[in-house]
Amino acid sequence: MKKFDKERLLLGIAAPLLAIVVAFLVTALVLAATGKEPFSAFGIMFDYGLKSDSQVYILNKGTTYYLAGLAVAIGFRMNLFNIGVDGQYRLAAFFAAAVGGALTLPGALQIPLIILTAMIVGAMWAGIAGLLKVTRGVSEVVSTIMLNSIATAIIGYLLQQGRLGHLDEAGTKVSTTPIPESSHFFEFPTTPTPVWGFIVVAVVAGFAYWFTLGRTRFGFDLRTVGQSGSAAEASGVDVRKMVVTSMLISGGMAGLIGMPTLLNDSYEYSGDFPVGIGFTGIAIALLGRNHPVGIALGALLWGFLERGTGKLEFEGYDKEIVGVIQGVIVLCVVIAYEVVRRYGLKRQQSRVGAELAAKAARNSDQQEVSA
Amino acid sequence: MSATATSTPPPAAPKVSGGKGGRTRFSFPVVLLIIAAALLALSAVRTITGAQDVTSAGQISAALAMAVPIGLAGLGGLWAERAGVVNIGLEGMMILGTFFGAWAGWQTDPWIGVLAGVVGGMLGGLLHAFATVTFGVDHIISGIAINILALGFTTYFAKLWFNTGDAAEKGGSPKQSPPADSITQFTVPGLSDWLHSVEVHHWFFVSDLAGILGGLVTHVSLLTVVAAGLFVGTFFVLWRTAFGLRLRSCGENPVAAESLGVNVYRYKYIAVIISGGLAGLGGAFLSLVTSHIYNEGQTGGRGYIGLAAMIFGNWRPGGLAMGAGLFGFADALQLRNGGESVHALLLLLVVMLAVLAVWKLYRKSYVPGVISAVIAAAVLVWYLSTDTVPTEFVSATPYVVTLLVLSLSAQRLRMPKADGMRYRKGQGK
After folding, report:
1. What is the value of ipTM here, to two decimals?
2. Taking the CB of the first residue and of the last residue of chain B, which one, N or C, has fewer CB atoms within 10 A?
3. What is the pLDDT of residues A310-345, one digit of tens each?
4. Which of B140, B307, B393 minimises the CB distance to A157?
5. pTM for the whole thing?
6. Closest-approach residue (CA) in chain A for B389
7. Calpha distance A270→B153 (Å, rounded)
């Protein structure tokens, strides 16, 4: 398997490309069916989506989405469906914002503290689901969905005047106390708008993900559990411990999702903090096939689609079409991967079969000669 | 390689040591006894705390109305999972149901809306069956993809169809449809009034019973009756007909079913499409009975809660109905002056935890016993030091209840053996 297989790589790339093409076709059909001209819409999207301010937007959005994709992918790699990334990152960002607003330490101390708070809160919230799974046998799919809603309730309760909330001067918005300027994360001074410095952390996280899963004993165990729990158990892996550990890591990674926005953009947690990114992360992890590079491409694609369709609103189209495009891409991509996987399996089987047959033929030839 | 490429089932619930192997079978009298005990406990709580709303007809009526969509979603889950397909796309199919139900409902008759909602859900089911059965995509992944897709489509078309022309004039907006006519409600004449007159006396137990029965016969939508019929019908079809036996055999052991000549693919398709239709009906109930309009985000995760109710009900219609009732009750609390009622129910939680603690200590499992006792004490302190529960926590009640109930009951449950597993035609040869 280590040998470079050109056809395999080609198949791997063909699947998502096919899905994207199909998604655009379906979108064109939907647009045409609703009496709008589809191809000029795509023209507008590409024109606008590749402008330099759009590039900055896509990189910044992509940073957030990339972290979300990684958080989900860690669970996916061991067949754990952490649907709760959504609640984990919101709760984490909220508490991190509260801690950041309450302290005025030097930035070099406070920024790591804020990030650490977020990761710990995210890990704890995910850990509940992990513990419930191994001690009480509750499916993580259901428990994390419930924890999402409970996180919403907790934030709603605490984000009020007199608790951790803080009414702004206009009296319209409740938010946490803003983080002092010394604790803002650095930015790349690009024009017209800066690229968030947190992109560096995202890249490091992606590298750590690749290294841990692909190059360490732990990552090997994790993937083994994902493919067969009983086989892992038989080879001495403590599956229950692995479940809790990977939930904790996934939650810790989820804690990072809110950080680019918090430390580079909003500097506070309020009612308009982005929601639902956990679900975006699921889509992106599926699209990128849990591969660090694939997830990055997926994250950038999602950012591009949102940017491009946002412009459509001013050209007589509806920006909500983005939901249709993204939904069709996700569904097509999972089907395409499955088709490719099955084809690859068949190809492998027939190749092995051919080799065995050739060997058998050679053996029987030799036998005839010696006889 | 990836989550899309596994052929093993998701890691099953690990067995927890210390549990007794024997499983008590819930016979009909036992269930009745449990219900009676729960009723006694409820009326005791009501009498002690004075939170009269806990068992009032209004509360029960609201609980029933909230339980129906959850129950229908759960019933959808039941059909799919009995045939071996996990359907987490219920939420998306429900969204399709709310959308198409309101779309057809405001233009024509609400019953046509109901039909359109069912068809919308079935389309979602068909898509799920197509991905999971024909292509063998992981069930949970396909379900999530359908949820994303359904949300995207309805958001787009809501803006297109509800925000233009006639619809906009009649009160539509990008996130909301114009109102549809109501579906007939009925009240059993005489009985309802008589039960109400008993209820207002606040007698111990008798008034509670009257309140609950009163809630079940006052302002009941005809669609609720249809839903109740579907529960009974599901039981008969799945457990009393050859068709049902074959369908369930596909969920337990598809290879064996195939060897007996059952067309597993066809049964799975039928089951998942019916599943989508039921979820769509639940959605149509939300948009046509509960609120008369489509509203973005209206389902609020009820598809997932329906799934949880089904798991709680051990993949059986009766258990599912109880689960849906429980979640409906918790859901209804937040509609009505819920803070006080939830506060009163905290006392019930204290008693239950205390009983659990004593039982665990008696059985010499000290750690869980002590934990239960500590939590009971903490909840008791909370109960005594406050008068009401903040509204945010009331809204979280259904989810907390789900977690609590599942964590107490998950190990006693048995799901269909081949549930969630990939099956290929002829794989057993």
Report:
1. 0.86
2. C
3. 888 888 888 888 888 888 998 988 888 888 888 888
4. B393
5. 0.87
6. A157
7. 29
